[in-house]
Automatic annotation (TrEMBL), chain A:
This is RNA polymerase sigma-70 factor, ECF subfamily. The keyword Transcription applies. Residues 14-79 form the RNA polymerase sigma-70 region domain. The lineage of its organism: Bacteria, Pseudomonadati, Bacteroidota, Flavobacteriia, Flavobacteriales. It comes from the Bacteria. Residues 110-158 form the RNA polymerase sigma factor 70 region 4 type domain. One of its GO terms (molecular function) is DNA binding. Keywords: Sigma factor, Transcription, Transcription regulation. One of its GO terms (biological process) is DNA-templated transcription initiation. It holds the Pfam family Sigma70_r4_2. It comes from Flavobacterium noncentrifugens.
Automatic annotation (TrEMBL), chain B:
This is Uncharacterized protein. Keywords: Membrane, Transmembrane, Transmembrane helix. It comes from the Bacteria. It comes from Flavobacterium noncentrifugens. The chain crosses the membrane at residues 36-57, 77-95, 124-145, 165-189.
Length: 164, 212
């Protein structure tokens, strides 16, 4: 194995690990499952790395492999069964002042996203990451129009979960 | 404000993940993957080996002598030759499909390729079950024509005027036997792949539904 390639990979992954963590957070509940999925994604990324040409950003390339691993390759069910599994306090950077009401609403939103299925979570993830519909459609392998339609349905679904 | 946009505002703030060190990444890289592709590969190799072993075990000297006695030695030689050629073809297709599985493809394509790889092995299993069925039928026919015990039973039945019933009964028993073998295999595969690919099937269906 090319040690230079290895070093480059480790460095890039270390710098871009947050995007992988975000996917793990979305698709798993609990610290062990998070670490397990992170490890599987790392293995898959390393396997695919020799083909990474660098014509896209590492993070763009990595999140695609990571999503595919979470949705398709990861054997354990990634769908969280329990609600309220998202611990907001754990990941929250304390700010000088924040809006408690807004904070509560955000926590409910995370819980609602947790109840979506794997594919819907992927769409939400890319939406939150500011990916355009062309990229979303290419990543999932669906048409752009249908990606848009599905995203709107997800928004409605989330609304319904939040206001039953 | 849209709920999701509120979440978006918050999304990038929540980045206080426990950071993985370079050393940990080095270590992780060398761990074995437990992905379904890995499992699929392992199971497929076991399946291929199982049928090869079965052919080798059953193809012993006693069997050859029997074939010779029945006068179908030449015929069986060609059947075996074709069988091995088909096996090589299946392994080739399996390998080709396996190589196309890439995590950088779109999710839908990736899922499609995984399912295609699995199907190759599945077709091989069905092909083998077909061969097993033909073999059982041939063996029963051979029994009828060459087995002394069977012939005396048949003569008995003919003498009593039950020839048709006897043949019907034998066919019935063979059919049940064949159905049982195929049934067991079918159940085994349903369970095996059902457990392994359940999540993938659910997600694949969900993706296809979006594009309907």
């Amino acid at each position: 194995m090319d040690p230079e390639l290895e070093q480059l990979f480790v460095k890039q992954l270390k710098e871009n690990q947050n995007i992988i963590h975000k996917i793990c957070r979305l698709y798993t509940s609990g610290e062990d499952a998070h670490k397990d999925l992170f490890q599987e994604i790392t293995i898959q990324l390393w396997k695919a790395f020799p083909k990474f040409r660098g014509d896209s950003k590492f993070s763009t390339w990595a999140y695609r492999v990571a999503l595919n691993t979470a949705i398709t390759l990861y054997r354990k069910s990634t769908r969280s069964v329990q609600t309220s599994s998202f611990d907001t306090t754990n990941h929250f950077i304390k700010q000088e002042e924040y809006n408690y009401e807004e904070e509560e609403q955000i926590k409910l939103m995370y819980d609602a996203v947790y109840q979506l299925n794997d594919i819907e979570k992927a769409l939400v993830f890319m939406y939150l990451e500011d990916k355009d519909y062309q990229e979303i459609s290419e990543t999932l392998g669906i048409s752009e129009v249908n990606a848009r339609v599905k995203m709107n349905r997800i928004k409605t679904k989330l609304k319904k979960i939040l206001n039953p | 404000m849209e709920e999701l946009d509120l979440l978006k505002k918050d999304w990038n703030k929540r980045n206080s993940f426990e950071q993985v060190t370079e050393h940990e990444i080095y270590k992780m890289r060398h761990k074995t993957s437990s992905s379904i592709v890995k499992w699929l590969l392992a199971i497929s190799i076991i399946e291929f080996s199982f049928w090869i072993l079965l052919t080798l075990i059953l193809n012993d000297e006693k069997y050859q002598v029997k074939l010779h006695r029945y006068g179908i030695e030449d015929c069986m030689f060609w059947v075996n030759a074709i069988n091995y050629a088909v096996l090589v073809l299946f392994i080739f297709f399996f390998y080709k499909n396996y190589r196309t599985i890439s995590t950088t493809d779109s999710t839908r394509q990736l899922m499609g390729n995984i399912l295609k790889t699995r199907k190759t092995v599945q077709y091989y299993i069905w092909y083998n079950l077909g061969i097993v069925t033909v073999n059982i039928i041939l063996s029963i026919l051979m029994l009828f024509y060459h087995n002394a015990q069977m012939q005396s039973l048949m003569e008995d039945a003919t003498a009593k005027g039950h020839k048709e019933i006897f043949i019907l009964m034998c066919s019935g028993i063979s059919l049940v036997f064949i159905a049982l073998i195929i049934g067991i295999f079918w159940l085994f595969y349903r369970l095996l792949y059902g457990i392994l690919l359940k999540k993938l099937f659910v997600n694949y269906k969900e993706l296809k539904k979006i594009d309907l």
